[in-house]
Design brief:
With about 160 residues, the protein is an all-alpha fold. The protein has 5 helices and no strands. The chain has helices at about 15-50, 55, 60-90, 95-130, 130-165. Helix 1 runs antiparallel to helix 3 (about 60-90) and helix 3 (about 60-90) packs antiparallel against helix 4 (about 95-130). The longest helix is centred in the C-terminal third of the chain and has 34 residues, at about 95-130.
Length: about 160
């Protein structure tokens, strides 16, 4: 099988620049739908726990982790929603070629913040049921897991694919 015959080789697509941009935009929107939903659920959960009695009695460490996690979650949600606002403002201005790379970077930033917010949420929960040291080690492992599957594995596959070309 030659490299031109590989399944999923996008260079074989017979699409013009407009069709390619439309496809990239639609793929990005599908990814954002998933990320936005999870971030909104996490954000709502975080907002609700601040008003519980047990949280009010928590120590400064818990309050600091909570504040950082809530802010990371809010910023992630903002970055995930930014492409929608961006699109509304530049709609029908023939700027999709500029909009898509910017939306890509906004989404990538949102994923980093979402990863941190998830880890903060896990730290808040594990700190309640286990001792703090175990909670911190657990979250470090969770963070490593996310970095491995969200960044290292895709980078490895991308590099291996480029080496095959």
């Amino acid at each position: 099988m030659t490299k031109e015959d590989r399944p999923g080789d996008y260079r074989r697509r017979e699409e013009d620049e407009g069709e390619r941009l439309d496809r990239h935009w639609n793929e990005l929107l599908q990814e954002l739908r998933l990320a936005q939903t999870g971030t909104q659920i996490l954000f709502a959960f975080l907002l609700s726990i601040a008003f519980t009695n047990r949280f009010q009695d928590a120590d400064a460490f818990t309050h600091d982790v909570y504040a950082g996690t809530l802010i990371a979650s809010a910023l992630a949600m903002g970055l995930f929603l930014a492409p929608v606002s961006f699109h509304r403002i530049v709609f029908q201005k023939k700027l999709r070629d500029r909009m898509i790379p910017i939306a890509h970077h906004l989404t990538s930033g949102g994923l980093v913040l979402l990863m941190l917010a998830i880890c903060g949420g896990v730290l808040l929960a594990i700190d309640v049921v286990l001792n703090r040291t175990v909670a911190i080690v657990t979250v470090a492992l969770v963070l490593a897991w996310f970095v491995g599957f969200w960044y290292v594995l895709p980078a490895y596959v991308r590099r291996a694919s480029e080496d095959e070309e």
